[in-house]
Amino acid sequence: MLSNANNTAKSILTPFNLITGAIVLVGLVLTLMRFTGGLARVSNLTDYNPWGLWIGLDLLTGVALAAGGFVSSAAVYIFGLKKYHAAVRPAILTAFLGYALVVVALNYDVGIPWRLPYPFIMQQGTTSVLFEVGLCVFLYLTVLFLEFSPAALEWLGMRKLRNLVHRLTVVLTILGVILSTLHQSSLGALFLIAPSKLHPLWYSSYLPVYFFISAIIAGLSMVLFEGAFCHHFFADKLGEAHRQEKDQIALGFGKAASWVLAGYFAIKVFGISADNNWHYLLTGYGLWYLVELLGFVLLPCLLYATGVRGRRLTLIRWTAGWTVLGIIINRLNICIIAFNWHLPASERYFPHWMEIGISVFLLTCGLIVFKFIVSRMPVLYSHPEYKETH
Amino acid sequence: METIYFTLYDYLTHTKGVAYILIVIILIGMLCFWNFLTGKDKDL
Fold this sequence. Notes:
The structure holds two protein chains of two kinds.
Chain A: H1 2-12, H2 15-37, H3 39-42, H4 53-65, H5 68-78, H6 88-110, H7 118-121, H8 129-156, H9 159-166, H10 169-189, H11 207-233, H12 240-274, H13 284-309, H14 313-337, H15 353-376
Chain B: H1 8-38
């Protein structure tokens, strides 16, 4: 009896549980402070800098990195690339959790959570880009919930309902592509209103196009990155099909990412030319822009291509991580670093440690839920009773 | 160094000229890159 209790205590007190437990405790305290003391209590946000880390990282980056859901489901169910089927469920789960966290993070930024549905029922600003983003995120989160629900229903043993939702797969995929195309680009369009605030190298009338194409790159890279993550940490949960298809997925998605990165690099250079911004490249901001463009767009493009040609899977997976980092840097550049670039240093925004703490807390919550779901539901393996229907 | 343009026409002529040159370079570059990317597909 005593031995059983000791074993249970040991199984609970793992390094993962201890670290995440500590982060969650601190995060809950910070959450309480945010919703009782207001934005000023926990953040450095001001009227000059109303969009900080929560928008730049949690929302803009979160949405971009969640693009793996529509990218992989479109590849499999619309373009008929069935050989990548094993990548769909983990990607849909990541996308669903990513979007759910985006909505939660948005509550920290705007406050008064019960007023979140107000844009859809109270106001008349239906021509606003922000309204479109809000509506798309709301609808796409619902679509992702339905897309992921077969896994949960298989786990719960609700066969009839599962089969009903499963029949909607293609419709949901098409809806997902439409909604993603709309709001991924519109997130870039939000910044079109601020030509005098965003540095000319990052500001462009092509911003919506940049955001959409870079979201596809983020989606492809995230599928590879999370695939490597799952194969490392959830190896015991992997089904036979997933083991067999993982190399093919790495090569196929790596090739696609390389090609889209090449196109993205081309239109970014074209954007500099169209606005005649060449002279900015030799300034401090210009050098940082070149780091982003050459180090996080051109370099991964070539690394992916080299990895695919030589079938070097480890290189492809490392490049995926590097590309994900590049997407994070790009979104932070646009939302924070190159925003209000002309203001004196004393007026510039730097996130408060509590803002960073809340972002880490939300990310940790996502990780805990991901672990909970992957450990229980048929995400990394096919449920034996439904193998024939996949 | 920033170039000075005296008329909008000057500016547009210059930027469009550069854009056309870039389009040609990009098109040829993308073709070459596609060949590089898929060059070993037949061997697999």
